[in-house]
Write a structure and sequence with these properties.
single chain, alpha+beta
Length: 156
């Protein structure tokens, strides 16, 4: 198993608030462009999609309220787990130390091709979450994709 860890980011939301935005897989569908939503099926525990011709599914395999969510493969081309961590920040009520750990069963060639991209993607996800929590649009995201007043931390 290959291990990849994101950097830590301080998100300007309380751990419970950030946790609740990730706890239901249906929440992720709202972030997709309209033309992609039909390719994704989600319920509380699972999400299935077609990505670049591959059927991929994920499921929440563990929830530790307000602290950790573990996501694992559910019909993917390789085995993996993703752990999302929501740690409190030294007594600051409205701040969360957020980071991601990934374990993936990749063969040598996949490690060579995907290894750095996985780490970079995880770091960008953390940076994007930090930016959105501070009211900024993440780098590379077109703000016109979202309606005025869109808040990614509230159920839409």
């Amino acid at each position: 198993m290959a291990n990849y860890n994101s950097k830590h980011g301080i998100v300007s939301r309380a751990p419970y608030e950030l946790y609740m935005s990730f706890v239901d897989m249906r929440n992720f569908v709202q972030y997709l462009p309209e033309d992609k939503k039909s390719e994704v099926q989600a319920d509380y525990d699972t999400l299935k999609a077609t990505v670049q011709g591959f059927e991929i599914g994920v499921k929440i395999s563990d929830r530790v309220p307000y602290s950790k969510i573990a996501i694992s493969d559910d019909g993917a081309p390789f085995r993996f787990t993703v752990d999302l961590h929501f740690d409190s920040c030294n007594g600051e009520q409205n701040k969360t130390d957020f980071y991601v750990e990934v374990q993936a069963d990749l063969n040598f060639m996949m490690k060579m091709v995907l290894g750095n991209k996985i780490k970079d993607g995880l770091d960008k996800m953390v940076d994007g979450l930090v930016a959105m929590s501070e009211g900024r649009m993440p780098e590379g995201i077109d703000p016109s994709m979202f309606p005025a007043g869109f808040d990614p931390f509230k159920k839409q």
